[in-house]
Design brief:
171 residues, 2 helices
Length: 171
Amino acid sequence: MAIEGAERVDDELEIGFDDRFERRWHYAELAGRGFMLLVVAAGLLGFLGRGPFSHRTIVDATGRLAIDYEPLARSGTATLITVHLRRTGSGNQTLSLDNHFLEPFGLTQILPRPVTEVATGSGLDLTFATPNHSSDVLIRLFVRPNGVGFVPLALRTGTGEASRWMQLVLP
């Protein structure tokens, strides 16, 4: 007595085998493994956090201002922007933060503390003391983005031209 629709293969009955479904399932598994491999590779390279691509540095045309930042930031999570101001003589150095920087990025802390902070119509001017033994001033701006998407940012030194860059803020 044989079961209707069943065929004998290697002295066993194969019931419910669908070759087309098995092929599609195999391709779905390969696609899933490929996706997982891409996520792991992106994480190792720093696209999802710390790694070789997790920081970028831009330098203005004069070489007087260098900005180190994280190209990917998370909304509501603190991130660090490091500014290197080259010393241009004795006295204090001024860094100007544009309103387009302050509003979406929520400045939480500045290290070292500026000597003066002056609010202007276009943003905030910060003046920093330059130690005599140092060739530049290292400023750390701790910010907490409060939006999502690409945010255009700009900083400038004194009356110099603004250095501009974009940061992507993820949810």
